[in-house]
Structure formats: structure tokens, C-alpha cells
Amino acid sequence: MKRFLQAFMPGVIKPLHILWNELIGFFFAVFAIVILASFLRGVWDFKGDSESLGRLVLMGFAFLVMAYYGLQSFFKARKIGKS
Prior knowledge:
0% strand
């Protein structure tokens, strides 16, 4: 039984690990797209006051973070798949 599990488990764990990273990457990418849409709407409605500018800066930062982690998750899944 021990030999069977040692041979079987890597074949199950690796695809699950890849799938997990792809799902996380997908959700971060969706969040980044939603934030980007809000950011663009904020740019179009920009009034020139500090509140609008602060909101745009925060949305831009959130977009960059979400996009970075989304891409990083996809690249990590690809790296795991190649190994």
C-alpha cells in the first residue's frame, strides 16, 4: 500500500496544484478587470479634486497588485506543469 501511494500521489497532487494556481490566477485576473473598469469610469468622471485623485490612485494600485498576482499565479502553474 505504501509503494502504491508513493507512486500514485504525485500524479494526483501535481495536477491539483496546477489547477489551484490557475483558479487563483483567474480570480485575480477577474478582480483586476473589474477594478480596471472602475478605474476607467473614475478617469472619465474625474473632477480634479483630491478625493477623485486619491480614489484613482488607490484603484490604480489595486489593479496593479491584482494583475501582478494573477499573472504570477499563471506563470507558477506553467512552471509546475513543466517540471
